[in-house]
């Protein structure tokens, strides 16, 4: 017998191990070492969350009660995976091209990004999953009780409740920690997936160990087992073809529609080719899991005392032979099965709830919608955390209320039937372009309602929610509405009865209503994108060129993706268009790409609604519909080739015209350069000449004389500074500058710059925001030159920031070997048209000579940064003028 | 002699210098340093002579001059233009815009004084 405390301790140790593995995997992923974290092996193992505690413990019980019928639960998924080429491959491809975040998102996105459908599917999933989660909590509790020994006294129940409570609380913590690290559901949860792969190994090893023990230690080898099976009542079991086919179908449907399976199979999929491996490896895993089920059941029935719970044979058999260590391993296997299921299920459901319920509500009730929304990542992540806690609380509540009733044993299949209601809309959406949003909604709601009425609510047991009378006579005595004999057809197994009626009426309404209604333009577009996903994976168009400013879009995207992500994405998009900088043209292609990127974080419907608030002419254009209508494959191929070419041309043309524009602007500036220099030299010269003539004439009073002399003095200094700047610039431009490279603390450099720049417009009170801890990092460069750049940026902010209460934020961060320092003020910033010119010589945006400089400051900064091996850029969309200085922490010696 | 001159220029030290030179000669000197509102200032105090800089914040001296010449009330106002850009083109542009005289910075004080007096018909 294993001491109970030892059990709890090993349980805790195991959980700590999982934490460490998840943490380690996240760290590896952060460092870019994802190679084997993202291997087909890990993918296959993660699929094994299909095997929950219900299959780990329950399969033996199932076999003890109904013979080989338990095989159906493994047979359905096996068939689906072997036939992966037809359905799964398409599902995964669509999941990747459309950046689908959940099964609710898939349905919503397919049917015109309808949020209504997202909400319906989310509800179905939550309702169906709650008892299933409760079942996992119960299995952990039951297995604990096996070890706790025979204490049937009054406190046992309360104790098992508290076991379930602590398990639920621990799982909530784990899931929140590793399931909500980043927003983009398409950015995979490396920690969670790796921990789950480990758990998959543990449960397989545990079950195999118990099986080997049973066959070779308890019995005397395979021959003995075969004769024992022959002798047991299991061999009397007769196959019922109807139930066999129905359950196989149901399990096959479940692996496609269970939220957690969709999560690991589609959302977390890193590479389509992994499916090819999983298509044979996962059935193999299932085979190994089921190999010893019958032997354990037969031996358990024969050896253990009459009335032992066959659901717990996996534990009680080793215990009966005093194999404490083996029982412990079996316990951890069951524990693994339960926890991995709950973790992934909670992540999947939380994504749905936050994307389809919380975000749309927020968008609707927030005045101003998505515009200027600021950082919403915190909101979404918190919504997800709360949803995770909510889902687990529901599961625990169900467990506590149902009191661990025996009805829970059937709950796995009941959940399967619930989520299977999504199947018609899913398959119809993948293969039938005529399927419509209204049809899908009608089918889903019908199936869901029937499932609730004939299977879910009666499952609480007679006399609980439905009185015995209602079950026997029907509601209000209407006989053909009896929950287990709809339309007066009796004598079918209740589960098959429910499966048949809910799915057939669901499918009939889905098809019928789809035929009667017309899909809207967006539904048509999405329909083609889904059904013909392999024919042309090109982006679907949904937007015409809008009046939206790329800068506004960037500000919004930053709120969802985070500043780095969003800026990186915009920069890449601009580069693809042949443009430099952060702001791409707002072409329809760009809108579509941005929408897909956002959909990866907040779901298709919400992303679409957010973009719609920016893009003018959100409607689908006639051209887009023509493209849809045009079916002739040849024309399609030809035109897509042409399109590729013309896109290439357009890109080149854009790059050329941008270069040309810049050259023209530069040539105008070159012309202006001489006259600018002339102007800058002549202005101080004028004062000097005029006042020196006045002084020469004499006859002035003392104070006047002194003042005029001072003016002459100041103006000569101004002249000298201008000449210094010009010389500095010319040295820097020719790359003949001598760098004095040394090591320094970046914090000290910023301090020096702030102090020096404080001399500019001393009368302005500036609030400076700094992140002091982040600033302490060593930097190896020409520190005087870097400080010169900092001073320039800070004094520019002091001069030009036009806010009533000027503020300057200095952000420091290290990315790879790069150090980035951002200087962001809260003024009105630099207009988009001038952003590419500010770094040119004499490009003063206003004519005020009063600002003091000659308009050479930023040009010098740019040259300094180039000499230091870094860059200085203007970052749009930061709510003010924002400059980013980036340089390598250690200056690279360029090859001489 | 109680002649008034209006100086439109944005460089404080140059304003100070010209004011000193003219005031010493007995002129009443008013100044204005913004291009955008210059026209209003001219209309408010129609001076005997206008000294107008070319590079002004808000609006260039050429534009202001063009508006002056289009206004019947101010058509005849004598104007001396100042410019710091010593390029040949500037003189032509100033004459075309209707400037009566044109001086390049830096100038000789005596030259400014002589030109202003001449424009005032003294």
From TrEMBL, chain B:
Domain Response regulatory: start-end pairs: 4-120
Native source organism of the sequence: Frigidibacter albus
One Gene Ontology term from the biological process aspect of the record: phosphorelay signal transduction system
Modification sites for 4-aspartylphosphate: 53
Upper taxonomic lineage: Bacteria, Pseudomonadati, Pseudomonadota, Alphaproteobacteria, Rhodobacterales
Stored Pfam families: Response_reg
Keyword set, alphabetical order: Phosphoprotein
Name listed for the protein in its UniProt record: Response regulator
PROSITE patterns listed in its UniProt record: RESPONSE_REGULATORY (PS50110)
Record flagged with keyword Phosphoprotein: yes
